[in-house]
Model the fold of this input.
Amino acid sequence: MPEQKEQALPRNEFENAARLAAKAMDQAHRHQSPPRPHAYEVWYTYVAGDDPVLRARVDSELIKSDQVGVEIIEQIYEEHFLHKRLSDGMTRIGDELDAGLRDTISVVRDSLGASQLFLGSLRQAQGKVAKVSRNHDAKQVVADLLELGQAHAASTELVNTELTKARSQVVELQSELRRLRNSAYLDHLTQIPNRRHMDEVLEREIRLASENGLALSFVLGDLDHFKEVNDSYGHAVGDAVLKHFAGLIRNNIKGQDTAARYGGEEFAIILPRTSVYGAGHLTDKIRELFHGTDFILSRDRSSIGRISVSFGVTQLVPGESMEDLVSRADGLLYRAKKLGRNRVESDM
Done:
């Protein structure tokens, strides 16, 4: 096996990369993020400063807590890096479709040429038939027609085969495109939409509500003292609690509504055509159902007790931006926490 040549980086480039790597590991250690590949990529990009959107996202988490755990890191990774994977994947799929269509069009073009040739031969044969005077001549004309018919049938079969292959390729690529979209817009743990998808849906619903004079409510919820659950029972138990809560929201909203994991143990609900009164009623029902759940450890059937959740609920004010709406819901959530948790605060 031939020896591979070692690739060398310019000294300044190598030293800069090593410096950023050290800073990324320092950030992971300081904020108690296990240095897994996704965490390393997030922190490396953060310290490099090349992605201001990611940097702002991480800073918003650091304002809440000095710790940035696995769940938050994974969510940030999904929001910022899987989007690029989706874009690259869609570009590749588009290229493959273009190539497949070019091949199919080429086959169809050849088939049309063969069909024109076939029609021309039939016209020639028609002229010969009109002049047939002997039995031998008639047999030769029939033989020529049979040969032409067989050649045309083979050409048509080739076209059908190529079209069938092209259709199969399109179906397969459509399926892959759906998988890519799901991976970019679904939270990997809870299997509900992530923050990126929530932003897109909320922006669209605000536009529709504003154009049509419809009510639109927005909810932010945050599990109370969730860090204590992770610290006391481990991340596997914490993950199970998050999945249960996500499922509870999903089972209590309507088809027009959207639930999303907003960040860590924070969740959002978009409620089109719903007043703040109706949103508050629904949210309080979810709060009661969740707090009424007694979580049991599978290993020894012991109870970890009940976990509560706090909510901030608000309604879109005509003319306001998405940032204003979210900020007001966040302020109401903060008020619910300050007033004792396990409650719903709204601006009714």
User: Anything to note?
Assistant: Residues 70-131 form the longest helix (62 residues). The mean pLDDT is 79.
